[in-house]
Amino acid sequence: MRIKQAIQQSIEVKEKILQDEAFLLMIDEVANTCVTALKRGNQVLFCGNGGSAADAQHLAAEFSGRYYFDREPLNAEALHVNTSYLTAVANDYSFNEVFSRLVQAKGRKGDVLFGLTTSGNSENVVRAMETARSLGMVTVAMTGESGGKARPLADFLFNVPSADTPRIQEAHILIGHIICELVESRFFSDSK
């Protein structure tokens, strides 16, 4: 039955992550990096296309809205939410430039950029990461198993052990949710 097969495949990907101690430690380290950035007055930015754009927007909302409890908002934003900007830059320059131009405009040294791309090769995400690195931002790539072109641009690489887009995206949201939980807990417990 296809339903059971899809669920089993999702479980298997997550079990591989669960058994990878370095991967789990990196989740913890990225959460700490975000807390440090936010405490210094920096921001956390997200970018991605399609389902990854939805995940980027979802995770930004968990930071700037709330996750488990009522608290002050955290400075986070998905770079694709201004459709006037997105369509103007795509039209006047190239869709490959939509995220990098906004990173150039908004990004500052010490900010954190999450680039979500299942292939690791989405040109607009790759260019955003290049721009972020040139500004001294911390780069986090959330990709599939190869890491693609994003691999060498990532300070932290979450290369989910799969080549199947839906399974990769399911793992991305799991990883992102854990980071949101840790950031919220640590940021606000430290500030009490």
Explain this structure.
With 192 residues, this protein is α/β, with parallel strands linked by helices. The protein contains seven helices and five strands. It has helices spanning 2-19, 21-39, 51-64, 83-92, 98-106, 123-134, 165-190, and strands at 44-48, 76-78, 112-116, 138-143, 156-159. Strands 2-1-3-4-5 form a five-stranded parallel beta sheet, with helices on both faces. The chain is globular. It starts with a helix and ends with a helix.
Q: Which labels suit this protein?
A:
192 residues; alpha/beta; five-stranded parallel β-sheet; 7 helices; globular
Q: What gross morphology would you assign?
A: globular
- Alpha carbon gyration radius: 16 Å
SSE string, helix = H, strand = E?
Answer: HHEHEHHEHEEH
**Low-pLDDT residue intervals, each spanning 5 or more residues:** none
Our measurement of the CA-to-CA distance between the termini, rounded to an integer number of angstroms, reads 51 Å
- The number of helical elements comes to 7
Helix content: 55-70%
Q: What's the mean pLDDT score?
A: 97
Query: From the structure provided, what is the oligomeric state, counting identical versus distinct chains?
Result: single chain
Q: Kindly estimate the percentage of residues that lie in beta strands according to DSSP.
A: 5-15%
Structural class: alpha/beta
Topology:
Layout: H1 2-19, H2 21-39, E1 44-48, H3 51-64, E2 76-78, H4 83-92, H5 98-106, E3 112-116, H6 123-134, E4 138-143, E5 156-159, H7 165-190
Parallel strand pairs: 1-2, 1-3, 3-4, 4-5
